[in-house]
Amino acid sequence: MALPHALVLALAAAVASALLLTGGAARRALGAALGFGTLAVPFVIVDSHPCWVFLVALGCLMVSLQTLDLLLDRPGMSAGRRVWHQLALFNTREVQPVARGLDGATLRRVLAWSPPLLIGLGLCLSSGLIESPLRHALRYGGFALFALAIFEVCSGGLRLVYGLFGLSPPRLHDAPHLSTSVREFWGDRWNRIVGGWLRRYCFLPLARRGHPGPGMAWAFAASAAMHTYLVLAALGWRWATLYGLFFLVQIAVMGAERALNVSAWSTRAARGWTWAVMLGASPLFAEPLIRMFEDLVGLASL
Length: 302
Description:
Blueprint: H1 3-20, H2 25-37, H3 50-71, H4 79-88, E1 96-97, H5 104-126, H6 135-164, E2 167-168, H7 182-189, H8 192-207, H9 212-235, H10 237-259, H11 267-296
Antiparallel strand pairs: 1-2
Helix pairs in contact: 1-2, 1-3, 1-4, 2-3, 3-4, 3-9, 5-6, 6-11, 7-8, 8-9, 9-10, 10-11
């Protein structure tokens, strides 16, 4: 299936799913089947670059997460609100009304993070062209800068767009580079869209029963499965396994963090620990994505 046709199929299934996820059991079951069924769409795309397949998979994954959220919703939303919730890809219940207009502070933040985004991407892509002991530092350090910046720019851009309509979406990203622990990085600051979903449906059900450790492990296992799916659709099992492994490693890292009592360290030491751990594990996460980017711009072959 060509990419445009796949996009139309996924969008139609997502909208139909949102409209059906109310009423009787049979209707809701059909809505759930359509919403979760979008996960198959990336695997039927042909003759398209892995980067685009990855992005389609990301959209379909988010639709499936919103499908579960709507399936469990009581009381139900209106039809229009369900469609918005399904396609917004974040928790629309947390949207707040604000005065319409362009938020100057958010605009300045987006503009400030745009050069680091380009610099980071340039560093990680150009690293493959040099032979130097600094190659890996440029490759993964540049990607870390790019990853931080792209989330800041995209979350800020979303807030700017919604602000024009008098709406303020929830905080989607909160300066993860300031984290003083790996737990804080994942739990409070990095990608609060998926983090919030994992907290609601994986961590809290077990934590409320007195099992926070297994709850945390289950959340990271679910995250590993989600990220494995994204790269599996684009690059196959080899790179998907590497990508998912990054999130399983975090379970051991957070166990070590508790054993070392990092929360009692100085801010500088705790922040150094967090950066060292995240950068040390980053090749597992970064390499599949960098290879896709390199191939897209003609710098390397997958």
